[in-house]
Write the structure tokens for this entry.
Amino acid sequence: MLNKFSSFTLSLLLVAGSLYAQRLPEPFGAIPNKYQLDWQDMEYYMFIHFGPNTFTDKEWGHGDEDPKVFNPKKLDARQWARTAKAAGMKAIIITAKHHDGFCLFPSKFSTHTVRESAWKDGKGDVLKELSAACKEYGLKFGVYLSPWDRNHPDYGTPKYNDIFANTLNEVHTQYGPIFEQWFDGAKGENEKKQDYDFPKFYEVVRRNNPQAVIFSDIGPDARWMGNENGVAGETNWSTLNTDGFGVGADAPPAKILNSGNKDGKYWIPAEVDVSIRPGWFYSAATDDKLKTLKQLESIYNTSVGRNSNLLLNVPVNRDGLIHPNDSTRLMELRRFLDATYKTNLAKRKKIVTFPATEAAVISNLTDGNKNTVWTIEGGVKNVDLTIDLGKPTSFNRIVLQEYLELGQRVKEFYILYWDGKKYRILGDHTTIGHKRILSFPTITSSKIKIGFPEIHGINPVLSEIGIYRAPDL
Ligand code: FUL
Ligand code: CA
């Protein structure tokens, strides 16, 4: 249903310290639940691939590796958590069980675990150490479990669904709270057939950790975005049609996962998973093949900056530590992002909108609070806003954010900049969502105009606008 002025509801928002009544439109289309909203605010967190593959230099273990190879003698989960925290990440997700079936905790439902390994004479538990370290450093904790299991003797029989559900249950009862459950849809060719009972798996997660966002190719709470290069679609809807689709081979085409479905039925936002190294698992051969700062910033812009969360893989090495090359690169990125986003050049600048907005509401756009918003009442066709920077100012990033409680509304927008005599086009764009970062070579201008030409009666509700100057790389 399109929003009309008559269908506006009255909402109370805190503006400049005083309660101010602002009319907000009805939500449009599918909307996030509160766990998905909290999750989206996390933006950036760490993935850790770790297991026998770390010791055998493989990406996909066969499941017949001797568990004794797993022996990370200096393992220090607090070092991982400390590194993630210093990098500005909000959580860590670890491969509790990868395709080779090896469990990083002493599962009762497997004989291929840390208990059978040489590490700490079989008395160690990586999940226990990592969940404690995450708590200590104020990080959330998440788990990856691969349904495809190349070790378990019951894989390929109906019994396996119960075994996998029981394994999940162990993880979710012993190491919580868990903020995200990551289900991998990958499977090799010519492997045993197994019909997974996903509803059963989801039920285990929901029962023990109702706040956990469940990730798979198609959600139900967060979706894969179709590639492992860190590049979400320039157009990226948080809505997706999943009826009739499944995880893995039955998922919608990667192209669809990459951009979502406009007006899609369900709210299933994208998460970008990508590795800082060429592989997912540690290998000494890749110690000097890390992504550069420039590549990582580009990935940040095409993930967080394209309405996705960024799950950056930092594989732990054979000692059980994050290698200094990886942590150095993470700190470089942190410093760069901090320097870039330190000063919003639009803050306290004069903003004029069409149609006009009450002055008290305008500052909502630059107050750094995602719950204070600007909107235009009714289905006006050509909404725009002009930010007057007062004097020629150099900048190279523009950040826009939508207020997701009311759905993802913006389908198209453009940006113009004043060259001293006339407006020139900086860009034509489609979606915004949680956050849209536009990155361009530095320009110097005193004014920009952001317009929403085709709102079809669905007026934009923006929570923040920022203009920034990133340091030169
Ligand atoms: C893929 C897996 O096959 C890779 O090994 C890795 O775990 C990646 C994150 O997901 O589907
Ligand atoms: Ca705001």
Observations:
- The chain has two domains: 7-21+344-468, 34-340.
